[in-house]
Amino acid sequence: MTSALRHVVRGAVVVSAAVGTLATTASPAVAQVRVIISGGFAAAYKELLPQFEKFAGVTVTTTSGGSVGNGANTIGSQIRRGVPADVIILAREGLHELIAEGRTVPGTDVDLARSTIGVVVGAGAPKPDVSTVDGLKQALLGARRVAVSSSTSGVYLTTDLFPKLGIATEMNAKTTMTGAAAVGRNEADLGLQQVSELLPLTGVAFVGTIPQEVQYVTTYAAAVVAGSPHVDVARRLIAFLASSSAAPAITRSGMEPSHK
Hints:
Blueprint: H1 3-19, H2 22-25, E1 32-37, H3 42-56, E2 59-64, H4 75-80, E3 87-91, H5 92-100, E4 110-115, E5 117-122, H6 133-142, E6 146-148, H7 152-164, H8 168-172, E7 175-176, H9 181-184, E8 190-194, H10 195-198, E9 204-209, E10 218-224, H11 231-241, H12 247-252, E11 256-257
Parallel strand pairs: 1-2, 1-3, 6-7, 6-8
Antiparallel strand pairs: 3-10, 4-10, 4-11, 5-8, 5-9
Helix pairs in contact: 3-11
């Protein structure tokens, strides 16, 4: 057996060990587990979910929503109006509110990954130097239109970072909160968002992360929703996403696993 093949086999054993017990404990009566997830963790989740479904013998239905804010489609708003869900995956800021309101099963919340803010430009466009605070400031001021998200990172940028840099007035006039995907549609020439949300975009080029001095780290976490009829399987899904077997996919998506 070649070393490469041995590595593949060992990887398969690790994954199997992490979720292998699921197949023996998941009840055939469980038709579906329902998950609502925010965009920051979505890329890693998309890669990992088929492994869980295969070994657990469970079908997972996934929908999306924002982590924070008062919009009708945020995860908080969906849970408050009774949208059925067993597991929610979102930024800690949004999860804290739902825990305080008693909308999750106590003790089921688990950190999954940490994500930082990065910058993109249009594919083929010159890449500005954003490695220093002054370089980032000049790139923002020099952009015709800047796109950020309406979720955690966008809130930080518009209400904290831009004022801290002394450019809030200038940025208010040219910032759209429609997400960095606008850069790929030629609707903006600079986009700032969670790195894990930037890497899957088309029509853009990743520039890098913003400087550590002004960086904002978002922690993505999961919890079981209060009233879920599938608490056991929901817990197992969260445990798998937080396991060492999930770490490589989380890293590939541009985040740092909370548990290595």
